Amino acid sequence: MSRVSTYVKTQVRRLVMARVGSKGIDLSRLDKVPDTLAWPLHRDGADPVPRLGKLRAQAPVAKLTSFLGMNVWLVTGDAECRAVLADTTSYSTDIRPFMGARGSTTDGDIGGLGFTDPPEHTRLRKLLTPEFTMRRLERLRPRIAAIVESQLDEMERTAAENDGVIDLVPTFAFSVPFLVICELLGLPDEDRETFRELGSARFDVSYGGQGVFGAVSDSRRFLMEATRKQRSRPGEGLIGQIIRDQGDAISDFDLAGLADGVFTGGLETSASMLALGTAVLLDHPDDYRRVGSDPSVVDRTVEELLRYLTVVQIAFPRFPKHDVEVGGQPIAKGDVVICHLPAANRDPRLGPKMDAFDITRPVGPHLAFGHGFHRCVGAELARMELRTAFPAIARRFPDLHVARESMDYRRLSIVYGVEALPVRLQPQPVLR
Ligand code: HEM
User: Fold this and answer.
1) Is 370 in the pocket of ligand 1 (CB under 6 A)?
2) Mean pLDDT throughout 29-36?
3) CA nearest ligand 1 atom 41, residue
4) Which atom of ligand 1 is nearest to the CA of 373?
5) Taking 50 as the threshold, does the pLDDT of residue 16 lie above it?
């Protein structure tokens, strides 16, 4: 069972338990996400499934399913998604009220900005935003460049030991954002290996649900310990800076939770963009070579990759606090609204041939980072990583190519990606 299907299943089970738990129905036995709910997360390679496009053309706001008395609405149009995501007063993203006793604020299991409403969201987000201003991020730019170069060296070393073929996911796509987040958080070098192991376990499907959730609480504990250590000697990064700014006004629990949210929000997303983005570029060899040689195309290529791939498939679920209307469709208080970001980013009302990857299209605002007050806090950091990494890999390995016929895409996941991306760094020698 995939990690994300476990996640989806857990979220669905929690929601549903909360709805009907008080009536005594034991839904913890629910062990399969029904396909009526899960199908929009399936993809056809890089593309959303064609059924989504048909649905968007008919009804950009449509009832996906009715699940144990709960209406779930799927929003696939760009304007309709924006209307939902920008509405700061009509929706909650807080899943705690749906979780009964498990939603207590001291429960380390949930939290993070995404599932928090104002005023708590505003308070927590304000603590983070100073760390993500361009001025603070500039501090990371040379570190990001150095991390990228050292991972490219690592790819070369690994390839030399493996007949020229390596898996790009662990060597590059995962390692670059992992090390960048360690820098951002200000984790000392000697702790990074432990954290990497916890991080890999957390994102490793082979551990199954138990392993993944065990690793989540282990990495939380690790960050709690890192926060405690920095209380007496605040370091250079985000954890130390917030301690310096806030002192005792922020608890270790809240700070470790914020750090964990940054880790969760920033690692898998950027890793997926680096792996899938490289695969897409290798499929468009002219664009791949150009991104390595012509700095003027880098930003637009990154924006088009973000739009085309939209790796975060759905925004945090929105729960209407009162009856609402979206795109003319009435939605009742108590229903659930799911904004489908890849479908919205390919809405034909935005321009021609939105299903194609085309770096010459005019750069427009896309929804890959969401929209409104939950919009990704790390968007500029992610851009900085991608704008550094793609040109660097294309320069270092102009002959890079995928070393497998078919790609190992994730089957059911909120953050879309590949499990592995075997690549060959050099052209294969021709045997005579
Ligand atoms: C290419 C990489 C990334 C993508 C595609 C991405 C995408 C997103 C999306 C779609 C949302 C949710 C918006 C919503 O539901 O309204 C989000 C939220 C968030 N992201 Fe990212 N993200 C990326 C990288 C990062 C990085 C590098 C960090 C931090 C280091 C980060 C931290 C967060 C946080 C903390 C939130 C929650 C914000 C809130 O609720 O106020 N993300 N991201």
Assistant:
1) yes
2) 65
3) 374
4) 41
5) no
